[in-house]
Amino acid sequence: MTAISTSLQRRDVLKLAAATALAPWTTTLAAEDAPRKLPRVAAINSIYRLRSHAYHIAGRLIHGYTINGLHHQPPFQLVRMFNHQQPADDLGPEVCQKHGIELCTSVAQALGGEKSLDVDAVLLIIEHGDYPLNEWGQIQYPRFEMFQEIVEVFRKSGRSVPVFVDKHLSFDHRKAAKMVATAKELKFGLMAGSSLPVTWRIPEFAPPLGTPFEEGLAVIGYDRSTWEIYLFHVLEVLQSQLERRPGGETGVKSIQTLSGDAVWKAGDAGRWSWPLLEHALSRCPSRNYGKVREQVKQPLCTLIEYTDGTKGTVFNLVEAVSDFAFAGRIKGQAEPVSTCFYLPAPPGARFFDPLTFNIEKFFASGRSPYPVERTLLTSTLCDHALHSLKDGHKLISDPSLSVRYQPHDDDGHFRGQYIDRS
Fold this sequence. Notes:
Layout (H helix, E strand, L loop, with lengths): L3 H16 L20 E6 L7 H11 L1 E3 L2 E3 L4 E7 L8 H8 L2 E3 L2 H5 L9 E5 L17 H15 L5 E4 L6 H14 L3 E4 L6 E3 L10 E8 L7 H15 L9 E8 L1 H8 L5 H9 L9 H4 L4 E7 L4 E6 L7 E7 L6 E6 L9 H14 L6 H19 L32
Parallel strand pairs: 1-4, 1-6, 4-5, 6-7, 7-8, 10-13
Antiparallel strand pairs: 2-3, 9-15, 10-14, 11-12, 12-13, 14-15
Helix pairs in contact: 1-11, 2-11, 5-6, 6-12, 7-12
């Protein structure tokens, strides 16, 4: 990783310290040196068990984590937790008792009461747990419903605080749009999305704003559960790169999901680029031997046509790869650009380190490190992509795809060391 990243992340840590009105510190904060009063956070979770998203995100607020190889203790206090489900391996009661966190029986109680809001920020982590699938293969996580309960407390208390929503806003794009509209109405910061856009990249690649992408594609291979789970992540990989086109994001004209031999025929017809696919796969340590067309038995791809003519494609290639990678073609540049989005393995899953640090920056400032409209667009794309697949590869054009926004100059992704320094 690059040497400049050390100073970059130290600068961000110092900014975070200043934003939370704490005495400056560089890379560590010993518990005995911590200020007595820290900003208070409530966690609203679907489930709190080993390797769940709540375990990784809320747990990092409690225990700290690594930044550039050194321990970082977040300058926040997790004060309450609500867990919607309590399975046999539930860790919620044990963790809350050990760390002085109030384990609550409702969303409102976790925020301070139905008419009383006494926390400074809210984590909404509704991922994992036992929830039904609908006919399009979407897990019906109650993110929207829990968000509505949070907002009800905001309305009754007469104040609001920043809210982070893990992964997509909702499996239903209409509910996702309502969440963004509500945040704007009540004027509170809303951040959402995947850890993929902010994890490490190998090789390091950060396209500047105004990069004239003409085409981009992203790959993954996943078959351990419903495709929706990783479809959202790979859409976030693609969008985090293509949004940096001149003029920012201007929306999507159409989307279509193909399966089986129709995927390869679309490549042969030039609807997506075989050379770009090879470039993306070449960055993946998990790439299988042989020819991808012969390896992959049930390929999936989603074709995205942006309103400015840019082409985007995401793939699920189970037998070929298990890493996330991106490749793009830039106007006036002969060679494609490509990178692997590196995810350190569980149980530590250190890709939650950069996500948690970006959440901290958001909680401190009230401003999301990247526009929530990106997650609104990827949530909407994910929903329509699954409907296209279910409805016989239907080409979908819909006003909900016309999401416009300007990306930030600094996209928040981590550089530097991702293992502990000796």
